[in-house]
Amino acid sequence: MDELVKLVSKKTGIPEQTARVAVETVLNFIKQKLPAPIAGQIDALLKGESQGGDVLKGLGDLLGK
Prior knowledge:
The protein has helices at residues 2-12, 16-33, 36-46, 53-63. It is an all-alpha fold. The protein has one domain (2-63). It is flat and about 35 Å long.
């Protein structure tokens, strides 16, 4: 998640601490809208425990793609 926070901070010009709050808020909102298994995979991806393929496949399945 640190990489995402740094990217948001760089692109918006806001301090990293503010960017972290924004990223966490958006991610928590998205995870509440997704089925639990996919939300858990997003957590794993952000912790570096997943390569992201399962998350992307799950989102594709959810969206019918």
